[in-house]
Specification:
The protein is of the alpha/beta class and 389 residues long. 41% of the residues lie in helices and 14% in strands. The protein is globular and about 65 Å long.
Length: 389
């Protein structure tokens, strides 16, 4: 099968969308499919069969956009047409300009289109200081639907939660709920990297994710200050993003200075293997591969119970949840697990079974089946049209 992958953002492994896209690309190539990938210019190494288009020039807003780590592709229609006309199916990653141009071209050529749902409305509205404006967020979803998703033969939703949120704001789609899956690198609980000497006598709490408003890492910083074990807590914030300096300033009075650092995949798997607890603070989340990686790697999670986050459904007990806007409640949950080692081990056994459903291989097979279904549907339509002539 010849597949065109269209992604409006660079495929750099520092965010969930890019990681999910790269996992799918690698799997499809391994299965023998022919891929052409279109995404914007960037400083990361170019993949085989990747075509890059110029990024959008936001003129006087370029400084703000760059500060927030946003790079979007310019819709080069000639390039897109050349790629799409040779494809059996087109798969879109995010519903922005490049994908919007691609879907128009695909429809004009009779090529079936699938799309993944990787962007919550709040990922847009938070840049406009309107993250908590429900009306505005619903308008974002309606725009996504009108411009992209209503034209798709199949829509991939990483969780039932985000499918419900989107379709309740718009209309039904031909949806497929498939987890983005977890790389086998994080699936081994036998991985035991040596803990760095400076952390030997510390309790390590890991929190992964982009440093941004919706990820709410500030809650963990305040919770650490309230913990009975504050003098011994070593926080590790794995990631990067525009809120880095703000978070560093907020954490400057902690007894133990936190570590703010972006880790490569192998390094992150090592950090997971020697940490003691994982805290997921995000208020806005479609699925959270980061949380799943920690769980599959053997860490017990404490997760924000935000109504706008699918990650809360990964909690197996009430002690795996905390009130999303309450550092006090999070501090109490951290202290609870540090004081109940036996119960922690029992809960970890439950998570061992829970993590099996997120096998990357199985999730990617389901994605492949969805793409094949769309491609076959497209062939059926062409055959019907030809027979009617």
């Amino acid at each position: 099968m010849k597949i065109a992958i269209i992604c409006d953002v660079p495929l750099k492994e520092n965010n969930g969308t890019a990681i999910a896209a790269l996992n799918l690309i690698r799997f499809l190539k391994k299965r023998g499919h022919s891929l052409t990938i279109v995404c914007p210019e960037s400083d990361i190494p170019k993949m085989e069969d990747e075509i890059r288009v110029p990024k959008i020039n936001f003129l006087f807003l370029n400084g703000y956009v760059e500060k927030n780590g946003v790079t979007l592709a310019r819709p080069e229609k000639k390039i897109l047409k050349k790629v799409i006309e040779n494809a059996d199916v087109v798969h879109l990653l995010v519903p922005f300009s490049l994908s919007r141009a691609a879907i128009k071209i695909a429809h004009s050529l009779g090529i079936p289109v699938t799309a993944s749902f990787h962007c919550q409305a709040e990922n847009i509205s938070n840049h406009l200081k309107m993250m908590n404006n429900q009306w505005f967020n619903e308008q974002v979803y309606k725009n996504f639907y009108r411009s992209v998703y209503r034209y798709c033969d199949c829509v991939h939703y990483p969780t039932q939660f985000i499918r419900n949120v989107f379709e309740n704001s718009t209309a039904p789609t031909n949806g497929f709920v498939i987890s983005n899956g977890v790389n086998p690198l994080f699936q081994s609980r036998n991985r035991r990297a040596e803990r760095p000497a400076e952390y030997q006598n510390r309790t390590l709490i890991l929190c992964s994710g982009r440093y941004s408003q919706e990820k709410a890492q500030h809650i963990l910083i305040e919770a650490a200050k309230l913990s009975k074990y504050a003098e011994n807590l070593q926080l590790i914030f794995a990631g990067d993003g525009p809120y880095k300096e703000k978070l560093k300033k907020q954490a400057s009075d902690l007894p133990v200075p936190p570590l703010f650092r972006f880790f490569g995949r192998e390094e992150l798997a090592d950090v997971i293997s020697y940490s003691d607890l994982y805290v997921h603070t995000a208020e806005i989340e479609i699925e959270s591969v980061a949380c799943l990686e920690a769980i599959c790697g053997g860490l017990l999670p404490v997760i924000a119970n935000s109504p706008r986050s699918a990650t809360r459904y990964f909690a197996l007990t009430q002690n795996n949840l905390f009130q999303y806007d309450s550092p006090k409640d999070l501090a109490e949950k951290i202290d609870y697990w540090l004081e109940h080692e036996e119960e922690k081990n029992v809960c970890l056994e439950k998570y061992r079974d829970f993590s099996q459903k997120f096998s990357l291989e199985e999730c990617m097979k389901k994605m492949e089946e969805m793409l094949l279904l769309a491609a076959d549907h497209g062939k059926s339509n062409v055959a019907f049209l030809n027979s009617a002539r």
